[in-house]
Each structure stands twice: as structure tokens, then as C-alpha cells.
């Protein structure tokens, strides 16, 4: 419908007339840094910055992961967990809480009754304390990490951890739906008091799996 | 333009009302000073801040110079990814397009994530006139909407409300629109947030149509990005079947990589965080994940007119971080409502008169609502030289009416307001020197762009000189309360 719109032509013509004769403006000189963090300090900085924004950070090795996930679900009192289609089998091997598979037909109302969700991530950024989800097989559809109130996210360290934001960009595919998460949801709208947890998961737990 | 601000009095008249409101004054001062100090710390963490700022400016300038090309590229990419692109020359057309799209779904309710563009065009009012209820879901916007009020700050729109007032609004109004606030609601921020969570969750879970703006649009990929804190954005962008995004044409950037600059500068300038809690990026539609229909409404509404002004067009670089509000001595004393537009503070003073023209009292007076101290320029992450544009717009106002014209009188009154509040001038001087040290006057490795400068030039004419000259031409200064000198 848009090509027929007279406004499209009008706006484009106005844009062209507005900058007609203006000097060319070069693109950006990318002289800024791609990271501010030495390589061996990244995982620690990620842990520090995640904690600074009130995410709960845990460290584990591959062998200890199933028991840790099971413990976190139990401590949260979770009876059910949303499971992305490609979540590695061992991650939930230590728990028998009810699994709710991420399916195309699952409604938001159904997910509202699910206590927790366990996912991997696409990349984690140390300097900003950010994990990025790209709806990959171990992360699932966006809604499963949005509606349940408790999100456990597994980050493989150091492979998935970059220092600065510019290092994350080439690792991400912008044609996939992306969710950048830096701590649990928060608001400072009431007299600037930070309150954790408005609409997104109120508890974010990040497990850094090393080795 | 939106009808919301029609008939707005000129700046000093509106500011007098705000000044009389002690709650507003106290909240505003506390908020602006708190964010200002936090921002300085967040910025100081990045030793290449000046380079990021310059890159942000260059990306925007390059985009604006080639805007036709990037808009077409964006349209192609969004369309290829399953979206539908609409073009709206003005507010009425944008509102018409959105109302028709909502009606086509058969729905009479939509959920909205905070968007300045939709406030600018008065979308909620336009939808209401068509029998469509638009629910704001950002906590602050919810407070404003339930209180039947107007936003006063870009970032913290309910900054003029304290917790006691918010409790009262929630307790009396929530039940009229959906799930009522729980009995015995206290004024603890945690409890108020919980009441909002429950009230809005009901709406999110049944919403079929979401409406948003966007902070950025990437031409090469068709990707849109929304930066937020609370998760209401994720809800609106993910759960509904239909998503409609209304975005100003200046929000496009050429490449995916360009976002790496703004992902660093926007959160630190805005909420003074290393990163905001949530950013959602989407490209058209994705099978089985998120909305199955996506509409992008590209909005002009005065932007191409702004683009045509050689000096004024830099205002289109704005990424709406609100850092300039928080350092502005005039904003701190006058409050956001005095600016008579959805864009308050220094950015509003240069953007509104350009988007709307300078034909009304409020728009003719806005360029004069400043002491030209330059603090806004120094904190701006895309280096908009706000004082330069203010001086330029004063010139425009001065030429359009002639002596004794009502617009000139409005302008002189606004200038009088500033002059009559010596605290504004003094604080402005302090703010400028306090922030200056954050911005090295010489940037390391700056050889490649020696043309750029980092410190603002002296205003062409000092404010006091300008005032003396104009006052001697016989204009009467505005009355109004004296500043408390702070
Ligand atoms: S003018 Fe600059 S500082 Fe002000 S809101 Fe826009 S980007 Fe931020």
C-alpha cells in the first residue's frame, strides 16, 4: 500500500530539497575503542556488573551445572519451568519440576502460570553487565523469558563473554529477534527510587559456566 | 500538531504556574541533580567518551545528509522482512493511518509503550475520538494518564508527582480502567510498582494490538530498537498479534554497527546506567515469535522543514536522552510544562519552534527561555550546539513580527523571566564550569577530525548585553516572582 501513497513522494521530495546543496557529511570515524577491558578480566567484570544491577550471579563448571540449576529452581519454590526446544538435556537433568516446552501455540496466559524459565544466551557483554538473547534453540521464543517471573540464564565463559559493546555486534544477527538484558526489570519512576521488577522477570539469575 | 497544547501561554506565564507548585519544584530539583551526578560518573567510566560523541554526531549528520536514500533502504528492508511501511506527512495523517490499522483488526483497545512521537501527534486523543482506548504501560505514563495530566520530563514524565500523590491516583483511578489497586495500598514505591504490575499484566495478556515508537531504525537490515527499563516495552512488542510503530524519519541510522555507538552513549546519558535493563530489537516479523503483523509509520510532521534549516537541522540528531534537561537551570526552575510541548527543556526550546514554526506565542518565546550557558551542549551525546540554534531562532523570531508585534512581546517576556531569576544565570555559569572538566578540550588522536571542536564557542552576544539592548527598545519585562537565588 505504501508505494501508492502521495505522502511518500512528498516527504522524499521535501527531504531532497532540504539538503540540496548541503556539503557532504562523511560517515563516522570509528576511533572509539571496541573494548575497555583486558581479555583476562572479562568474566570477573561481567559478574561484577551483573551483580551491580541486582542480577544473582553463580559460577559453576559443566559437571556441577545440573545440581546448581536444580537447587536454584527449588530455592525459588518453582513447580514448573519453561524449556526452550534446544536446551542441552543435562541442564535440567537434576530436577523433576514440571517442564513446559516452548511451543508455537503456547499463550501468554498459559506462560503466566509458569514459575521459571531456563535458557542459554547468544553473547554476554562484560562492561555493561548485559546478556543478549537471539531466540536461538537454547533460548526459545521471546515470550518465555518475559512472562515467567524467574529467569535462569546460562553463559558459557569465557567463550560467550566479550568486553565491550562493539565486540558483541559481529556476533549477533540483527535479522533475529534480539533481547538485551541488563539486570532484572526496574523502574525509578516514583521519586527516583529504584524498584526491581515491574513487568519482566523480577528475579534474574545468571550462571557462568567455566571450563 | 496535537491539540493538547493549543492555546498554551508564552513561556514565562506557564513557568509562573510551575514555580508556585512547591512539590514540582522540590521533586524537579532533587531529580535533576541526582541524575546529573550519576550521569557524570557513568560517562567518566569510558575514556573514549569524546570519540563516541563525535561518532554519534557523524553518524547522524551523514544520515541526515542522505536521508532520502536511507529511508528508501529502510523501507525495502522492512518490507522484505514482512513489515508494511506507511508514510505520514503530518500528525493528522499519522493518526488516521494508525486508527484505520487498529480498526482493521476489529479491536477497540491497544497497549502502548512510551513514545514521544505518538505524544507529539496526540495519538491517544485521536484514537479516543474513534472509540479506541490506548493504555499507556510505562509506569510514569500510567501515572500521568490515570492522573489526567501531562508529562513533564522526557525520561521521568511523572517527576512532578510524589509518592503520596501517586498512591491517591492509583487508589481512586485504577478501578475505573481495569484491575483496581489493592485495598490498603501504601505509598511505598515497591507497593506502588506491584499495583501497576498487576493492573497492567491483565492488559498485556489480552492485548491484540501494541503501539510503540522506536529509538533507532537500521536502514541496511530494517531492524528497529526500543530501549526501556520496566519490561512493558517487551510486553507490547512481543505479546500482541499486531504491532504498529510510529517513528520520526530522523530516527534512521545506516548500519547495524552504528548502534554500537548509541548503545554506549544513550543509556549513560539518559538513565546514567551502563545499560538500561531491556532493549528489544526486531526486524519485520518472525514466524511464531512475536507479532504476526508489523506496521511502520514514518512520520515527517515538521521534520523536513527542520532539515531545511542549515543551523537548525542539528536538532534532528537528538536521541532524546534528556541529559540537557537535567543540567538546565531554566528547566529546573520552570518545570517541563512551561515549555508547552511534549519536548521540554533545552531540546524542546530548539525543537518545538522548528517542528511547529514560530507563529504562536509559546513557540516564539521558547528560544528566549535560556541564558545560553552552554551546559546542555556539553552533556549532549550527539553534540547538538543548542545555544547556537537558540541564537539562530531568536534571529528568526525577531525578523518575523517587527517591533511591538505580539510575538516579539512574548519573546521579550520570556527573556525577562530569565533575567528576573538571577539564580538561573548564576547556576548556569556554575553548571558550565562544573561539567567542562568532563570534556577534554583536546581529544586524543584527534588528527582525523581537527575541524570538530569540543567546547562551545562564546555566544555571539552575551545574554546581559542582549537584554539591555532589547529592554532599551521599550519592551516591558515580565512580572513574576523573583527567583530564590539558588
Ligand atoms: S539534545 Fe542532546 S542532550 Fe538533549 S535530549 Fe537530545 S540528545 Fe539528549
Automatic annotation (TrEMBL), chain B:
Domain Lactate utilization protein B C-terminal, first and last residues per copy: 396-470
Superkingdom of source: Bacteria
LUD domain location: 73-285
Presence of the UniProt keyword Iron-sulfur in the record: yes
Any one GO molecular function term: metal ion binding
Keywords: 4Fe-4S, Electron transport, Iron, Iron-sulfur, Metal-binding, Repeat, Transport
Region of interest: Disordered: 440-486
GO biological process: lactate metabolic process
Record-linked InterPro entries: 4Fe4S_Fe-S-bd (IPR017896), 4Fe4S_Fe_S_CS (IPR017900), FTHF_cligase-like_sf (IPR024185), Helical_ferredxn (IPR009051), LUD_dom (IPR003741), LutB/LldF (IPR004452), LutB_C (IPR024569), NagB/RpiA_transferase-like (IPR037171)
Domain called 4Fe-4S ferredoxin-type: residue spans: 315-384
Protein name from the UniProt record: Lactate utilization protein
Organism in which the protein naturally occurs: Streptomyces montanisoli
Amino acid at each position: 500500500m505504501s508505494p501508492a501513497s502521495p505522502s511518500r513522494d512528498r516527504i522524499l521530495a521535501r527531504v531532497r530539497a532540504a539538503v540540496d546543496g548541503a556539503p557532504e557529511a562523511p560517515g563516522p570515524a570509528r576511533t572509539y575503542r571496541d573494548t575497555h577491558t583486558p581479555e583476562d578480566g572479562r568474566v570477573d567484570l561481567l559478574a561484577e556488573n551483573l551483580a551491580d544491577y541486582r542480577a544473582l550471579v553463580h559460577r559453576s563448571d559443566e559437571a556441577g551445572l545440573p545440581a546448581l540449576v536444580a537447587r536454584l529452581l527449588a530455592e525459588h519454590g518453582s513447580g514448573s519451568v519453561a524449556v526452550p526446544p534446544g536446551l542441552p538435556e543435562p541442564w535440567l537433568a537434576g530436577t523433576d519440576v514440571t517442564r513446559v516446552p516452548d511451543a508455537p501455540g503456547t499463550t501468554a496466559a498459559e506462560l503466566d502460570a509458569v514459575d521459571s524459565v531456563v535458557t542459554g544466551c547468544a553473547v554476554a557483554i562484560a562492561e555493561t553487565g548485559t546478556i543478549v538473547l537471539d531466540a536461538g534453540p537454547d533460548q526459545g521464543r521471546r515470550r518465555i523469558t518475559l512472562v515467567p517471573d524467574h529467569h535462569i540464564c546460562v553463559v558459557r565463559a569465557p567463550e560467550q563473554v566479550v568486553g565491550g559493546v562493539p565486540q558483541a555486534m559481529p556476533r549477533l544477527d540483527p535479522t533475529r529477534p534480539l533481547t538485551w538484558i541488563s539486570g532484572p526489570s526496574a523502574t525509578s519512576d516514583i521519586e527516583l527510587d529504584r524498584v526491581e521488577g515491574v513487568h519482566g522477570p523480577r528475579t534474574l539469575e545468571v550462571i557462568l559456566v567455566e571450563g | 500538531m496535537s491539540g493538547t497544547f493549543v492555546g498554551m501561554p508564552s513561556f514565562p506565564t506557564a513557568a509562573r504556574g510551575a514555580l508556585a507548585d512547591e512539590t514540582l519544584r522540590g521533586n524537579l530539583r532533587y531529580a535533576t541533580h541526582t541524575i546529573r551526578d550519576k550521569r557524570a560518573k557513568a560517562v567518566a567510566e569510558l575514556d573514549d567518551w569524546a570519540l563516541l560523541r563525535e561518532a554519534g554526531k557523524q553518524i547522524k549528520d551523514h544520515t541526515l545528509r542522505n536521508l532520502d536514500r536511507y529511508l528508501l533502504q529502510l523501507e525495502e528492508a522492512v518490507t522484505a522482512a514482512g513489515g508494511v511501511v506507511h508514510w505520514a506527512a503530518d500528525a493528522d495523517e499519522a493518526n488516521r493511518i494508525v486508527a484505520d490499522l487498529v480498526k482493521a483488526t476489529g479491536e477497540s483497545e491497544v497497549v502502548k509503550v512510551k513514545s514521544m512521537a505518538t505524544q507529539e501527534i496526540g495519538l491517544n486523543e485521536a484514537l479516543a475520538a474513534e472509540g479506541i482506548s490506548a493504555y499507556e504501560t510505562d509506569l510514569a505514563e500510567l501515572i500521568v494518564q490515570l492522573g489526567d495530566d501531562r508529562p513533564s520530563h522526557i525520561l521521568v514524565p511523572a517527576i512532578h508527582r510524589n509518592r503520596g500523590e501517586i498512591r491517591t491516583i492509583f487508589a481512586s483511578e485504577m478501578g475505573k480502567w481495569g484491575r483496581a489497586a489493592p485495598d490498603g495500598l501504601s505509598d511505598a514505591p515497591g507497593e506502588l510498582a506491584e499495583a501497576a504490575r498487576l493492573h497492567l499484566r491483565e492488559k498485556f495478556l489480552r492485548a491484540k494490538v501494541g503501539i510503540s515508537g522506536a529509538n533507532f531504525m537500521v536502514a541496511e537490515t530494517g531492524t528497529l530498537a526500543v530501549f526501556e527499563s520496566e519490561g512493558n516495552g517487551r510486553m507490547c512488542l512481543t505479546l500482541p498479534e499486531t504491532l504498529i510503530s510510529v517513528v520520526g524519519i530522523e530516527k534512521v541510522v545506516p548500519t547495524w554497527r552504528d548502534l554500537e555507538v548509541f548503545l554506549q552513549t544513550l543509556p549513560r546519558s539518559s538513565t546514567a546506567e551502563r545499560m538500561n535493563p531491556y532493549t528489544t530489537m526486531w526486524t519485520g516479523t518472525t514466524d511464531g515469535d512475536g507479532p504476526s503483523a508489523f506496521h511502520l509509520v514514518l512520520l515527517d510532521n515538521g521534520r523536513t522543514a527542520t532539515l531545511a534549516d542549515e543551523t537548525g537541522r542539528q536538532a534532528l540528531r537528538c536521541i532524546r536522552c534528556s541529559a540537557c534537561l537535567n543540567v538546565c537551570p531554566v528547566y529546573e526552575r520552570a518545570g517541563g510544562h512551561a515549555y508547552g510541548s511534549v519536548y521540554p527543556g533545552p531540546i524542546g526550546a530548539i525543537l518545538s519552534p522548528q517542528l511547529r514554526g514560530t507563529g504562536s506565542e509559546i513557540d516564539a518565546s521558547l528560544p528566549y527561555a535560556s541564558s545560553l550557558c552552554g551546559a546542555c551542549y556539553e552533556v549532549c551525546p550527539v553534540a547538538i550546539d543548542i545555544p547556537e540554534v537558540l541564537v539562530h531562532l531568536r534571529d528568526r523570531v525577531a525578523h518575523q513580527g517587527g517591533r511591538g508585534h505580539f510575538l516579539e512581546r512574548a519573546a521579550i517576556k520570556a527573556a525577562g523571566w530569565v533575567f528576573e531569576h538571577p539564580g538561573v544565570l548564576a547556576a548556569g555559569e556554575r553548571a558550565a564550569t562544573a561539567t567542562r572538566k568532563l570534556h577534554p578540550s583536546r581529544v586524543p588522536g584527534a588528527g582525523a577530525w581537527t575541524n570538530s571542536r569540543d567546547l562551545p564557542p562564546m555566544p555571539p552576544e552575551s545574554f546581559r548585553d542582549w537584554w539591555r539592548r532589547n529592554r532599551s527598545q521599550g519592551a516591558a519585562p515580565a512580572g513574576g516572582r523573583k527567583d530564590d537565588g539558588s
